[in-house]
Amino acid sequence: MRKLYIYIIIGIASLLWSACTDVQLCDVSVHPHLAQVSFKFNWGTLDKTKPDSMYVIVSRPLNTYHDYFSLPSVNSSPVGMKSGEYFMVACNKDSMVDIVNLNEFKTDFSNISLEDLALRMKSLKREEVPQLAGMDWIDFSPGYSYMANTGAFFADVQNYISIYTGNSAEISFFPKILTQNITIRLEIETDNSVQLEEIMAEIAGIPMDMNPYNGIVNEANLGKMIYSPDLAKRQDNVSTFEGTISVFGLVAGQDEKAVSGPGVLQIAVLAKSESKKKIFRAGVNISKLITEAGLLKSSESGEGNVKAKETATLIIDRQLKIKAGEIEKEEEDGVSGWFTNEENGDINVDI
User: Fold this and answer.
1) Which of 9, 42, 78, 173 is the S-S candidate for 36 at Cβ 3.0 to 4.6 Å?
2) What pTM was estimated for this model as a whole?
3) Tell me, which fold does domain 23-94+153-177 have in CATH?
């Protein structure tokens, strides 16, 4: 009988231990086998642009364990973590960016790793793009999804972080800008009969996915973005416009004379001409500029491309000329030459 009692006690203890080890987040006073870990985000000069909240995603390769936490972007309250050596990445939460495979990462240890995660810009339908509300927009690259110009995205990686049972720890992250700021500069020459009022632009060839852990962009999944260039300078009859997009990169098209797809910039210019308002539409393939700018480079692992620089300015050296209320056609098809979309009609539309 005494031996039976011993077996029962051992069985109950085993059940309690199993239940305890299966819990990933718990109170250290109840489960002292966990460490209490807090996370600190050091923003430095980026403090004014920091997001409201962050994801911290953790991976323990030995006795595999994965988890993630949603935390404030300053300092966090402690969370319970199992002991071991961890690899971690922190990145900001954004309503317009999904983290692909995040839930699977937490549950499917054997098949999903940090390298399988992806920050993915949400695809927008045309009616979901606020800049296009009420605009008669003719899309030169209809086969690509729209995405929002969300601004900077941040991330930091900490590797070989040791967590010890029953102890407390503070892990510091130093977020860096993950995205690239790419400025596109263009010039429009007009005669005295045309007054420019507003310009809208679309650029195609933007990677919609990037891995937050290794920074590799997915060049097979490309989209496009609408943005509003600002007037930077006006001299005589030439207006210089600049617009900046914050993106995971920009990919050139294989055909530098293509009128649709990656590398194609299109604009719609709202202007007054002969006492009427008109929309002037034109496009230009800037693939050569993108390639020459060296925006991406091979990753250290050689498994893909990562951003090569924080910022870049692409300068279109061929002016768009609007004379006598019409877009002036160019005599030669230069790589950086402007083209119209005559096959779709409505190049210049009275409104």
Assistant:
1) 78
2) 0.84
3) Immunoglobulin-like (2.60.40)
